[in-house]
Specification:
Structural class: mainly alpha
Strand order of the largest sheet: 1-2
Largest sheet: 2 strands, parallel
Helix content: 25-40%
Low-confidence stretches: none
Radius of gyration: 14 Å
Order of helices and strands: EHEHH
Number of helices: 3
Distance between the termini: 23 Å
Number of strands: 2
């Protein structure tokens, strides 16, 4: 999970709290869920990190076949353009 923009550190913390929970789940290379936030980077850098650096843990790789990007407000068209430049396509229902 990668977050960008105002409040993204809090979003990352929330995901971490849910993932860690009560601490009973032990993370391994097979099941770890990486979270990251990019409050002081341009959207292009954060998106590049998401697309080029993050990948599913071994135990999740077979089921992880789709990336999801939520872009809100006036950035949505810009983010969609950046994704299209990388060959991504929107899945229509």
């Amino acid at each position: 999970m990668a977050a960008w923009g105002p409040g993204c550190s809090e979003i990352e913390d929330t995901f971490d709290d849910v993932i860690v929970g009560d601490g009973s789940n032990v993370e391994t290379v097979d099941n770890v869920i990486l979270t990251t936030s990019h409050p002081n980077e341009p959207i292009e850098g954060a998106l590049e990190f998401f697309l080029d650096v993050l990948f599913p843990a071994t135990g999740h790789a077979e089921r992880c076949t789709t990336w999801v990007v939520f872009a809100l407000g006036n950035l949505a068209a810009h983010v969609e353009h950046l994704l299209e430049e990388r060959g991504a396509r929107r899945l229509e229902p």
